[in-house]
Write a structure and sequence with these properties.
Amino acid transporter transmembrane domain-containing protein, Hydantoin permease, single chain, two-stranded antiparallel ribbon, mainly alpha, transmembrane, globular, 69% helix, 2% strand
Length: 468
């Protein structure tokens, strides 16, 4: 199948012959992905550039930042910061490629459409399956994080399995908001709350005498390490946690598709990545410097029982928005795959609502099962980052650049073209190494953790905030 035919097939899934152009002067607007958008149905193209910034930041700042101090403890401060910056550079380029690819191929909605253009039907189904699996796992880790917060604030007032179920129900309800434009204001609340929570911990560990889990007798000297000597499995697991902290990349396809004006995507991206990287480095360095090996995972539990309650109290809205967003994304993906090209996609009819609610409930239930079956926060975060995060953030974007630019080498092999080919191949190879090696390391770490601690049972009532 030729590339031109693939483009036409994608366009044919929508109802519009136009190229993603919205006509705001009429009652009906057309979009290559969503078809006809009228005032009688949901407006899927209503996210401004500031809304894009906050959605991007909320897709990244949430769960991953809570494990960065622990990753620094494993790697050492200097290697940890270096690895974090390298991952930031690679993922920022990957994020940039998402916007460029969308502008060049306006009929692309998700990473599955990009996979179809590059690899045909196999690419569409593989990328689509991994996308849904990834965000469903992330939503599960969000439910687990929210259960930890509820346990911490309530001093384990009830069974942890109940808190996970409460997180799932609340996440499903809020995730059923149909458009990212309407979700963006909730993302502001969630982002502000999670930032307040982590900055409270950062200040608290800086002014306290010693971490709450450290020995309380004698003189306390922080035992942070500038350079550590971890095993391969420990090191690759720590790096995988950092990848997870930046692994919002696949969500950016959905976000740019719902922007009012996608040409402002790069502006939003630069603001997002600059703030995210600054927050990650400052939080990770300060918390690890003052806590050393006694840093908790999630990091909000590092400043003692009182500050743990305070920080988790602020974090609860942020973690709830995390669950909401990460249930919404795969549900929206499945929903569009089901109804794309039909009038039901942008209507308010029974088929539309039944399909949409069915998608959000199904994704939420699967995420709940994952959260209950793998109830160990740091291990779950690392496993998601290694197995699914790298595959969603590294390899496809290297392939996307090669897909759009490989043909230019037939006519002009400039130094820039050669450098970008080498870079794209490096991103693909490094992503593959991280995926294979990271998954192996995470599995080894999980097995060792279960042997050392006797394991944590599924659907457990035990207080999962004790280690934090």
């Amino acid at each position: 199948m030729t590339d031109m035919k693939k483009e036409k097939d994608l366009e044919g899934l929508g109802t519009s012959p136009l190229r993603n152009e919205l006509d705001h002067s009429s009652d009906i607007a057309h979009d290559d992905v969503f078809g006809e958008i009228t005032e009688h149905g949901p407006n899927y193209r209503n996210v401004g550039w500031m809304g894009t910034v906050v959605l991007m930041m909320k897709s990244q700042i949430g769960l991953g930042v809570l494990s960065i101090p622990g990753a620094f403890d494993t790697l050492g401060l200097i290697p940890g910061v270096i690895c974090l910056v390298i991952i930031a550079v690679i993922t920022t380029w990957s994020d940039y490629m998402v916007g460029i690819f969308k502008l060049k191929h306006r009929s692309v909605y998700g990473i599955d459409d990009a996979g179809y253009l590059m690899f045909g039907t196999f690419g569409r189904e593989l990328f689509g399956f991994v996308f849904c699996l990834y965000w469903t796992f992330v939503a599960g880790s969000g439910m687990l994080g929210l259960s930890i917060a509820l346990n911490a604030v309530s001093t384990h007032a009830t069974c942890t399995a109940v808190y996970v179920a409460v997180a799932a129900v609340a996440g499903i309800i809020f995730a059923s908001i149909r458009t990212l434009g309407r979700i963006s204001w909730l993302a502001w609340i969630g982002l502000i709350c999670i930032l307040i929570a982590i900055f409270i911990v950062t200040v608290a560990v800086g002014v306290q005498v010693r971490p709450s889990s450290a020995p309380q007798d004698g003189t306390w000297v922080p035992d942070y390490k500038l350079v550590n000597n971890p095993s391969f499995s420990e090191a690759i697991t720590a790096v995988s946690a950092m990848v997870f902290a930046y692994a919002g990349t696949p969500a950016f396809f959905s976000i740019v598709s719902e922007m009012r004006d996608p040409k402002y995507y790069t502006r939003s991206l630069v603001i997002c990545q600059s703030i995210v990287t600054a927050v990650y480095i400052s939080i990770g360095v300060v918390v690890y410097y003052f806590c050393g090996s006694y840093v908790a995972s999630p990091a909000l539990g590092s400043a003692g029982p009182v500050m743990k309650k305070v920080s988790y109290g602020f974090a609860i809205p942020g973690l709830l928005v995390t669950v909401m967003l990460f249930v919404h994304l795969p549900a929206k993906f499945i929903f569009i795959r089901l109804l794309r090209g039909s009038r039901h996609l942008t209507s308010n009819g029974i088929v539309h609502w039944t399909s949409w609610i069915g998608c959000t409930v199904s994704v939420g239930l699967i995420s709940y099962i994952i959260a209950s079956a793998i109830p160990v926060f740091d291990n779950l975060v690392s496993l998601i980052g290694a197995l699914l995060g790298t595959f969603m953030c590294f390899q496809p974007m290297g392939c996307m650049w090669l897909y759009d630019n490989w043909g230019r080498g037939r006519y002009e092999r400039s130094r820039r073209w050669i450098a970008m080919v080498c870079w794209s191949i490096f991103v693909i190879v490094s992503g593959t190494f991280m995926m294979v090696g990271g998954t192996y390391g995470c599995i080894v770490t999980i097995i060792e953790s279960y042997h050392a601690n006797g394991g944590t049972s599924a659907w457990s009532c035990a207080d999962n905030s004790n280690s934090s």
